[in-house]
Structure prediction request, 406 residues.
Amino acid sequence: MSLPSLPTLPTLSSSALEVWRKTAVRLLRLGGDADGNELVLFIEGDSAFETMLAAIKSARRRVWLETYIFAPDSLGQRVLQALTDAAHRGVDVRLLVDDVGSDTLRDSHVQPLREAGATVVRFNPGTWSRLLPVAHKAGLKKPLPVSLRDHRKILIIDDDHGFCGGMNITEDYGGKRLGNNRFRDTHVLVSGPAVRELGAIFGLSWQHATGTTVEALADTPPRADGSHVQILGSDGFLRRRRIQSALYTAVQRCHRSVLLTTPYFVPPPRLLRALRRAAARGVDVRVLTAGVSDVPIAAAAARHLYGSLLESGVRVYELQNQTLHAKTAVVDGFYAHIGSFNLDRWSFDRNLEVVAMTLDPGAGASLERVFLNDLSHSVEVDLVGWRQRDLFARLWGRIAWFLCRL
Prediction:
C-alpha cells in the first residue's frame, strides 16, 4: 500500500507536515488500510438506523451484524424483522451479540430469525461448559475470561458497505422517530475496499465466539478521489492493541490540536501524560465527556482526573443536553477516528473494539464541526471550581477512580 498523500494545511508548517508523513508510515504498519473509500458520518440515530435498515433490505449476498447491546424493543424488533426478511431471501445472515450486553435478548426473540436460516451467536456466554469445546477447537489454551466482552458495533452489507461506531441496537440510540433520543452518538458508513478489512475484524470476533472462520470479503474497486481508511481493532485476550498504538502515535506527534470525545474518560497514565505534554507545548487539547452519564461511577472517576489536565492547559467539557456515548478523535484536523473505543480500562485492556481511522481533511473537518457544535451544549470545567469540590465529591471521585482501574 502506497503512502497516502497529505494535503498542505494552512495551520501546519512544512516541518510539521513532514512529521505527519513519517507518522503515516508508522500508522500504515498497523495494517487494515485501503485507498479509495467513501465515508458518510451519522451523528443522529434516526438517519443512521434508517440507512442501516435500508441497507439490510437491499442486501443480496450477506448481512453480518455484530453488536454489544441488542435489545428486543421496538427498534430492535425492526432490525430483527429486516434480518429475518434478508434470510428468507437467501442472504447469508449472521448475528453476533455479546452475552452480557444483550442479556434481555432471549432465544424466543431470535427464533424466527434462526428458522429463516440465519446464524445467531452469543459472544462469551456465561455457561463455560458450552464455551470450552469451542475454545479448544479454535486452538485456545483456556476459555475466554469473563471480563472479555465484545464491544464492537459492525454491520457488513455484501462486500462493499460497512458501518461501525458507537450505536447499539436499542431505542436509546434512535432519534425522535425510531427511539427516545437519549444518546448523542456517532456512527460511520464506509463504502469501498476498506470494508474488506472491516469484514476481517468481524471474522476474528466470529472465530472467538464459534471456533469457525468466515469467508473473506471480495475485493472491491476503489472510488475515485476516495479516502484512505484504516480499520483497526483491539483485543485484550490476544494482546492486539492497534487502536491504542494509533492514538498514542497521533497524540505524541501532533502539532495543532487534539479533540477527543469520550463518554467514559478514565484513560491509562500513559495517555494522560501524552495529553498533558501536548498541551504544554502549545497544542490545543480539548476533551469532551459526559455531564449526564449512563455510568455515574465512570463520570465520578473522570472528575477525579480533571485537576492535572486543567493545570497543564488541557480544556475539559461536559455535555449537558444528551447522554454522551460518541467515541471519536480528531488530531491536527486530518487524523480522525470513529468507533466503539472508549478511553477507559475496559477498552484499553480487555474488550474487543474497532475504529475506522482516516487521514483525510474532509473527515477531520466534519468531526471538528461536530465537536464544536457539541461544545455549544456543554459546560467547560473550571479549575477553581474543581478545586472547591466538597469532601464527599473528592472521596467518591478517588474511590470511583480506583474501582474503574480494577
